Amino acid sequence: MLSLSSLMGTAALMAESDDAQAAIEWAEHFQKNYRLMTDEEKAEARARLEKRYSEEYGKQVTVDTTPAQPGVLMGYALNIRKCIGCRRCVHACVAENNQSRGKNRPGEKIEWIQVLRMERGKFDAEKMNHGYPEGLGIQVGGNAYTPVGQVLEGQYHYTPDLVPEKDATYMPIACMQCEKPPCVKVCPVRTTYREPDGVVVIDYNWCIGCRMCMGACPYWARRLNVTNPVLPKEEMNPVTHYLGNRPRMRGVVEKCHWCLQRTRHGRYPACVEVCPVGARKFGNLLDPNSEVSLILARKNVFRLKADLNTFPKFFYFYD
Amino acid sequence: MLTSFITDYVRYVLKGGAKFYTWMGVLGVLILGMLYVFYLQNTDGLIVTGMTSQIHEGLYFANLVFLVGVAAGAVTIVFPAYGYHHEGMHKVAVLGEMLAITAVIMVMMFVFAHMGRPDRLWHMIPPWGIYSFSSMLGWDVMVLTGYLILNFVCGFYYLWCKYTGRPINYKWFLPVVWIAIVWALSIHTVTAFLISTMPSRPMWHHSMMPIRFITTAFAAGPALIILAFLIIRNNTKFWIEDSVIKLLTTIVIWCLGIAIFLTMSEVVVELYARTEHANGLYYLMFGLHGLTRLVPWFWTSVVLMVGAFILFLIPRFRNDFKLLVIPCVMAFAGIWIEKGMGLIVPGFIPTPIGEVTEYYPSFVEWLMTLGIWAFGFFILTILLKGAIGILLGEVKFGARPAAGSLGAQAAAAK
User: Fold this and answer.
1) CB-closest option in A2, A9, A227 to B47
2) Measured between CB atoms, which of A8, A206, A214 is closest to B42?
3) Is A115:A171 a contact under the CB 8 Å cutoff?
4) Strands A239-241 and A200-202
5) pLDDT score of A271 more than 90
6) What is the count of residue pairs from A and B with beta carbons less than 8 Å apart?
7) Count of Cβ atoms closer than 10 Å to residue A81 Cβ
8) Could you give the 3-state DSSP secondary structure of residue A116?
9) Which of A108, A132, A151, A226 to mutate to test the interface with B (most CBs of B within 10 A)?
């Protein structure tokens, strides 16, 4: 039964591709976990992927394998006071990181950043007798029970004419790159792990699609490719990193990786670069003069769901 | 000798009347349907199911969890047989082992159905892949595989001895049986840990999960076994003693009672304070933000479980084996819902960032599930028929089985 199933999976894999493509995918199918590869094997895997992607997308695609740089621990800080909810970060992220962007079926659209829109909420004299439970008279009178503030019960499908809206606050959320990531702990094949520079990455070729990591993540940062990603040739970003934004395949999990293809070369992530109000800050936590370090030293900073001891390296702050 | 065991076994199993072949044929059609949807899932992807990035475990995982319980439930026969030297149980212990083998195989098939990349399964099997000791799923795969092997060894060694007429070598057989008994608890405990060790899903994050799993398993498992035994009693020459069914009934009643008690405790604890962490349970019981798809499932399971418990307490339903079927079916169905859809799906509602979405199994998922259950009954029929043939002495070394009509009778067992 076991062998039957894997045979069928392999058959399905072979049925969907052309000859050359199939040969490459065949070799890809038997490659090792990225962390266990020798430099030689990494170079082979890289060449294989570059060839396949270049053919598939009709342009020269590069797959970077730059490792973590010594003396670097990446950190991120977001000024929630400044965020205006424009979601330029979301769109820049999709364009930069080759996410699936199909429009026909719901599962074909993947976004790594969610900008949660939260009601400001207000207390109202008319609602003063809305106790709880209503009508039973146990705790009635003198209270209005209105959700106010950052309650993490937000809505990210909002379509206003203008942002920011008067009655809302915004809270962007994405992978927190935890120091103690629950997703890494539950992975049965160790395909997701933390790099020495602090970013939690996924070897998409090793992921078995069991989705334990998605269940374990308290920030809903992970997405499953429920079908073959929809990535038009002309929109594909050819500058990729093996552990970062290279095109993914059906059945694997993906998430934010702080634009490794940029940040490993000293650039900002796409979301930081695009933010029109400068709410997003990124830098090296080990460098006391980096923006992030200065924010940690001088501002009021908090981590999301700190009670879970995941120790995010994504900090929220306000002036 | 081994080849003659296999040929005799196969020959006996293949011998059957129209009833047997119709039954197996219907199952075969469903299995073909399952293979087709498995192909769909592995070309188009899991988009053909109702699962999303929000609710990424559904009917497959629900069945997986439930069937691990059925597999563990087989220990309710093996333990009284070897621990308490219950005569009647001892005679049928091997049938429990056959049920355990079937259930574990079904669990593994649901794992395949659930995975996004079943073609990469070898990634978790050393030396080619990596085994992760920190992953509960890794542990679960290990204990399940171990349980399959243990039951296979115990069951077929016993049958082998019966077949050849050799005495059983208790020096190693008994220790293995005892390991298998403890192991049965481990498979369900680890499966409970699989979901209860995730603080990101507050509905599951409590230490009551393993005991809830065990009690529901020891209610649903023996309930199914009682049904199977009654069918065997009525349709084959193999007689299963009243005392066996009575003891199993007692186990079902009180495990079901404890399970209901634990569910009620959870409801009180969660809904008294009614924190945000109770949203999942609240969604299950009453719906959330106007989304109520699971509400009928929950209340159906409550009616079935509590109803079964009340019926079980009425002596007439325990003593009349025709009536006993009713609460057994009710308990089995109720627990299938409670521990499956009713436990897995609301764990994802709302998502950790507060999004409330709904899940409903697609046709592909129903067909796959039906197909895997059909496959399970297919193997179970073969295993039980063969085992009964050997226990009856109709399959014996040196004697050609000439029991065509008996085979047909055994066939009707399913």
Assistant:
1) A227
2) A8
3) yes
4) unpaired
5) yes
6) 184
7) 12
8) strand
9) A226
Q: Sort out which chain A residues have CB atoms less than 8 A from B351's CB and list them.
A: 220
pLDDT, residue B405, reads 45
Tell me whether B3 touches chain A (CB under 8 Å): no
Say if the Cβ atoms of B124 and A208 lie within 8 Å.
Answer: yes
**How deeply is B292 buried, as exposed, middle or buried, from its count of CB atoms within 10 A (0-12, 13-18, 19+)?**
middle
Contacts of A206 in chain B (CB under 8 A): 120, 123
pTM for the model: 0.91
Residue A250 Ramachandran class (φ > 0 left, ψ -120 to 50 alpha, else beta): beta
Predicted local confidence at residue B411, as pLDDT: 47
User: In CATH, what class is B2-411?
Assistant: mainly alpha
Query: Which residue is associated with the tokens 């009635």?
Result: A140
CB-CB contact of B375 with B34 (8 Å) = yes
Q: Show Cβ contacts of residue B57 under 8 Å, excluding neighbours closer than 6 positions.
A: A211, A215, B51, B114, B344, B345, B347, B348
Of residues B53, B123, B348, nearest to A206 (C-beta): B123
Give the largest CA-CA distance in chain B: 70
Tell me yes or no: is domain A39-113+174-318 CATH 3.30.70.20.
yes
Residue A314, phi then psi, degrees to nearest 5: -110, 115
Q: Do the beta carbons of residue B48 and residue B362 sit within 8 Å?
A: yes
Confidence bin at B116 (pLDDT 50/70/90): very high
Query: Range(s) for CATH 3.30.70.20 in chain A?
Result: 39-113+174-318
- Measured from the Cβ of residue A291, the count of other Cβ atoms closer than 10 Å reads 15
The predicted model gives B49-60 an average pLDDT of 94
